[in-house]
Amino acid sequence: MRLAACALLLALAACAGRGGCGADGAVVENASALAVEQLHLAPAGTEGWGTDLLAQADLPSGGRLPIRLTGPGRQALRVVWVNGRAAEMRDIDACTTRRITILDGSLRGD
């Protein structure tokens, strides 16, 4: 019994050291026809969108960007295309989502 408890504690410590279940990250893929000029990631339910992850350059059509989902918990993502249109995805599970695809006018998580 004691051995099982120690094994469980070691497993939990390993997860905590990795930064949570989203520490492996995800990939954002731009499958839309336009470049994306802003990409914001924030914990779901918080005020504001925080830092623009694309502050240095646009994400072109066909481009990919690895991101780190902070978890566990729900995340929200907002994209703004170069034409000013925007889309949001407000219920991203940081523990299971490994790819977010930017489509023409919407976002899809896998």
UniProtKB/TrEMBL annotation:
The keyword Signal applies. PROSITE patterns: PROKAR_LIPOPROTEIN. The keyword Signal applies. Keywords: Signal. Residues 1-16 form the signal peptide. This is Uncharacterized protein.
